[in-house]
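Data availability excerpt. The first of two example chains:
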Amino acid sequence: MLDMLRATGKKIVFTNGCFDLIHTGHTRYLRKAKSFGDILIVGVNSDTSVRALKGDKRPVNSETDRMEVLACLEPVDFIILFQELDPGRLISELQPDVLVKGGDWPIEKIIGRDTVEARGGKVVTVGYVEGSSTTGMIEKILTTNDSCAKGTQEKAITRKKKK
């Protein structure tokens, strides 16, 4: 199918990630990634690979749920699940014209860079949105939850003393 799209002059863009809890960093990143071409393919880490990369408490959302949410986002044209820890094999198979990663990745460390550049494609990094990360969101939720639980305990103790 990608060959047919290329034959009509379409530029294929690829990016990948866990996309566990979608936030503004993700939406801006995907919009910018799409701006480098015509078709945006998003590789999504499987649940198993997310656990291996991020730890046993991740992902928060299943691979099926993460893919469904991504499918609803306007910039995303295709989604593909991959089992490996990195997208190297997938990039070799897809041969995208543009490979996009977040600004927290130095270009020389981007997996698939050699594959894309070898066929004349380009590798691009997109700026990082400060304060927008899934890990940060999880920490905030846990901190807020801990504060709420502590406040509830204090209120219960105070009420008990008043009686």
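And the second chain:
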Amino acid sequence: MNMHGISEAEWIAYIDEQMDEPARIRIQEHLRDCAACQRIVSELLYSQGLLVEQTDRFVREFEITPADVARIVSAGMTRIRSAPEATGPEGYGIEGWVGQLRSTLTPICGSTMADISMKLAAYDAANSSVDALKEIHWGEFVSHLSTNVASLCGCAAGSLIARTGAQLVEAAA
């Protein structure tokens, strides 16, 4: 995704406050004049705040230690790596692809965040629900989903979703 000359990686680095000064200034100058990008940054910052708040609450309420979080993420990644590969459209079709992405995302971000991210991506990609997606919308859906996931669950999760979405299409070819 490239929006107004700013790559997806740059938007994520800007939101995460992990970019060099010249790039940050360039984006801030763009944001002064672009209402669409201001809205997107505002939504991403709001989503990031909710994620931090929910994570803190989860850690407090369930007394999860950083070691436990690392163990949970590691177990989720092990499950993802050992999952069978999706077949092409004759075996799964778009419903199977969506299911594969959901099963990849849920152990990392939780079922609620997975569902919210997928609903937003479907709306942004095709102005539809996840159930109404068509294969023609797949690339845009995966792009929006990986962006949502990166902002809500971290860049690594967003990259994993982008890679998985691309692999599903490659497997079908």
